[in-house]
Amino acid sequence: MSDTTAALAALDAEVVACRRCPRLVDWRERVATERRAAFADQEYWGRPLPGFGDPAARILVLGLAPAAHGGNRTGRVFTGDRSGDWLFAALWRAGLASQPTSVARDDGLELHDAYVVAAVRCAPPANKPLPAERDNCAPYLERELELLRELRVIVCLGAFAWEAALRARAALGEPIPRPRPRFGHGAELPGGRLRLLGSYHVSQQNTFTGRLTEPMLDAVFARARELAGLGAAP
Length: 234
What we know:
Distance between the termini: 28 Å
Radius of gyration: 17 Å
Number of helices: 8
Shape: globular
Helix content: 25-40%
Largest sheet: 6 strands, mixed
CATH topology: Uracil-DNA Glycosylase, subunit E
Number of domains: 1
Strand order of the largest sheet: 1-3-2-4-6-5
Number of strands: 6
Strand content: 5-15%
Order of helices and strands: HHEEHHEHEHEEHH
Oligomer: single chain
């Protein structure tokens, strides 16, 4: 096990044990107990979610928070829900994932040159974390950015992730430019080490309405590969 892998594993254990936000602890555990009827026979994860992917990743994908019956059920970020179906299919098309689906922690999925995390690690009520909950999770992202030494690009899924990435870069020594960079699909922010690249979130609200299409998402990951120095997808 490499030093990076060991350090990430230690951080993951710390994340999973986190109980900093009483509202989120109550919600994630209540959902895990009550369960959705379709998953009534399954044991929910019901804890914070660590990151997932390649310790040598050059691209980090940053989401908002786990879905109550997706990652909060399966124990892996963007796994077991339709948002994840979109994301991992796009990563697979971009040559960054070993398979196009992500349904369970033990389904054999591996990421190559990519790492996926959420800005807030617990499922929040109505998918809306409070500012204090965002701030409580911020140090985890900052430490991941430090440990993932090969990172070059952060793909921000939505405005919440864009803001979290701006704050994390600032905490690591890259001040937020003025005027403050605005999120948009395809928006880019150069940086010393880490560039930001914006994408509409892979939520059903965007994918079902056509606001985000597969070609739009594919273009984002093609650009991420270019910015990361990986070239075109194999």
